[in-house]
């Protein structure tokens, strides 16, 4: 209704009063060229516009067909039009062109004009990033007019990730796919799956089958709900689904702590050979692999080997947090033997920042999850070569309550409203960890209190968009972000995403 009225008003005005471009494309664009999350590097609006119609074609070379498929899907979801994909545009056709060039992988340039849209990038991930930007420029209702001009964009950090805990509560492949659909729209490009913990084991390992037949059985999980596990076929399918949206899966097996479920399944993994009771509470730090037993390292190597064979991505996360039941000497000895095993199977080791106690971590990636601004052990490791992914719990932990009234989540790291998740800089956050050592950011979502995709959405959105902008955009501007976020809200509503309507934001619609 709102747009039809606008068109009537435009036609009623004397022509001289109406800006030419508006006449060319119908009503003025509903979405400003810069109203994108994360904020692009350069936005140059030129007052023109482009109208998507059912006859608009997608022009793409065979190499970009995987991106063209995502673009067709996005336009169909937005407009209902199923656009044709062609190798070459018929003359004078209305076209959205995907044009590979020789620029950087994730960088892209988006040009919108009367005759059409062109997205240029050196890689399909960059073309995909351009498509996510274009998707946000399409209005929520007809006429499907996109603001004209040019966007030049590139990420500040290469690693922009989320983490999802499948161990405390097993979320199904379909729930994980829904989460991937949402995170990829904000140019998030890694999904770290927490696949094992005290309460459950969530990935099939052929050489140790009881890990899932016992550790992934019904009733394994916090409060005795949320049992289940990913078969290898389901894991491979998730990897494929994520890759088609340019999200790399990073699997985590947490050790030497957080291993109660594995020890219930295989008592030989304890030092006394006695199976501990299964746990459905939320305590941490009470379990440890038996550092002095050789079977421990056979187990660890078998798991890493099978996980590496399942994972096309370059990283395997080996946990390392809260090993309070492991002496420091044993912890370092364990990491010294296990970190190199990741390299033996062709992957790069990634672990919670406690791994930096071990010299072998200097070729690994440390995930910083503490709440402080200094960490001498981490700074020393960085000086020796360790790279860092920033997940400060008081900024990036999406399982923290928004405020004391939030039904879900925890509060040990403090309350995290949207602005708390937005106002920090990964390049200067920890003393002795310069931007050159920071690969990017990751927003963990632990599932002690989660039970459904609705719970995931409520805790992740809108705060994940803040972390996505912190990881992508060159700088932060809270007033600009909160305005763009407020305008974005109705898109979640239209998609049925149950986001938290933070009082810090003026939500449109
Ligand atoms: N700390 C534990 C997690 C989880 C979390 C909940 C890390 C690295 C608290 N370890 O965060 O297992 O229980 O907020």
Automatic annotation (TrEMBL):
Domain of life: Bacteria
Beta-hexosaminidase bacterial type N-terminal domain residues: 35-153
Its EC number(s): 3.2.1.52
Family annotation (Gene3D superfamilies): Chitobiase/beta-hexosaminidase domain 2-like, Glycosidases
Signal peptide annotation: 1-24
Keywords: Glycosidase, Hydrolase, Signal
Pfam families in UniProt: Glyco_hydro_20, Glyco_hydro_20b
Chemical reaction(s) catalysed: Hydrolysis of terminal non-reducing N-acetyl-D-hexosamine residues in N-acetyl-beta-D-hexosaminides
Keyword Signal on entry: yes
Broad class of enzyme this protein falls into: hydrolase
Domain Glycoside hydrolase family 20 catalytic: 157-474
Family named by the database record: Belongs to the glycosyl hydrolase 20 family.
PANTHER family for the chain: BETA-HEXOSAMINIDASE, BETA-N-ACETYLHEXOSAMINIDASE
Protein name (Swiss-Prot/TrEMBL): beta-N-acetylhexosaminidase
Source organism: Paractinoplanes aksuensis
């Amino acid at each position: 209704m709102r747009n039809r009225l606008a068109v009537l008003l435009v036609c009623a005005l004397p022509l001289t009063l109406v800006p030419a471009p508006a006449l060319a494309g119908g009503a003025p664009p509903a979405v400003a060229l810069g109203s994108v999350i994360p904020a692009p590097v350069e936005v140059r609006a030129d007052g023109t516009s482009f109208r998507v119609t059912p006859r608009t074609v997608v022009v793409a070379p065979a190499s970009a067909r995987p991106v063209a498929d995502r673009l067709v899907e996005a336009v169909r979801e937005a407009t209902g039009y199923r656009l044709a994909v062609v190798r070459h545009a018929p003359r004078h056709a209305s076209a959205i062109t995907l044009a590979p060039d020789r620029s950087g992988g994730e960088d892209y340039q988006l040009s919108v004009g009367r005759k059409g849209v062109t997205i240029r990038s050196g890689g399909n991930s960059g073309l995909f990033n351009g498509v996510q930007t274009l998707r946000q420029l399409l209005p929520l209702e007809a006429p499907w007019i996109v603001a004209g001009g040019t966007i030049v964009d590139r990420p500040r950090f290469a690693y922009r990730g989320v983490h999802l805990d499948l161990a405390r509560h097993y979320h199904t492949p379909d729930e994980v796919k829904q989460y991937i659909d949402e995170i990829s729209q904000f140019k998030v490009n890694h999904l770290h799956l927490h696949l094992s913990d005290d309460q459950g084991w969530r990935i099939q390992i052929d050489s140790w089958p009881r890990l899932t037949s016992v550790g992934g059985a019904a009733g394994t999980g916090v409060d005795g709900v949320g049992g289940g596990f990913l078969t290898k076929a389901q894991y491979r399918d998730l990897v494929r689904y994520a890759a088609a949206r340019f999200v790399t899966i990073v699997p985590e097996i947490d050790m030497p702590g957080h291993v109660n479920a594995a020890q219930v399944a295989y008592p030989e993994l304890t030092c006394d050979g006695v199976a501990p009771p299964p746990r459905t509470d939320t305590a941490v730090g009470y379990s440890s692999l038996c550092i002095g037993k050789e079977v421990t390292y056979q187990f660890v190597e078998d798991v890493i080997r099978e996980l590496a064979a399942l994972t096309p991505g370059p990283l395997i996360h080996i946990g390392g947090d809260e090993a309070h039941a492991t002496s420091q000497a044993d912890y370092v000895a364990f990491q010294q033997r296990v970190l190199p095993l990741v390299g033996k199977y062709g992957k790069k080791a990634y672990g919670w920042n406690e791994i930096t106690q071990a010299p072998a971590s200097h070729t690994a990636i440390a995930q910083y999850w503490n709440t402080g601004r200094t960490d001498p052990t981490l700074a020393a490791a960085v000086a020796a070569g360790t790279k860092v992914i920033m997940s400060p719990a008081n900024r990036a932990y999406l399982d923290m309550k928004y405020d004391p009234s939030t039904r879900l989540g925890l509060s040990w790291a403090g309350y995290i409203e949207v602005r708390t998740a937005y106002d920090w800089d990964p390049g200067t956050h920890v003393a002795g960890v310069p931007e050159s050592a920071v690969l990017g950011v990751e927003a963990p979502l632990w599932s002690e209190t989660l039970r459904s995709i609705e719970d995931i959405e409520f805790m992740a959105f809108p705060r994940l968009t803040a972390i996505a902008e912190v990881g992508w955009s060159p700088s932060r501007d809270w007033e600009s972000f909160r305005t763009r976020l407020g305008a974005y809200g109705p898109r979640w509503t239209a998609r049925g995403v149950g986001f938290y309507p933070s009082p810090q934001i003026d939500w449109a619609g």
